Amino acid sequence: MKVADILRVKGSTLFTVAPQASLWSAVQTLAENDIGSVVVMDRGELVGMLSFREVLGKVHANGGAVGDGTVREAMVPPRVVAPDTDVMELRRTMLEEHARYLPVMDGATLMGVVSFYDVARAVLEEQSYENRMLKAYIRDWPEQEQVGN
Question: What's this model's pTM, rounded to 2 decimal places?
Answer without folding.
Answer: 0.79
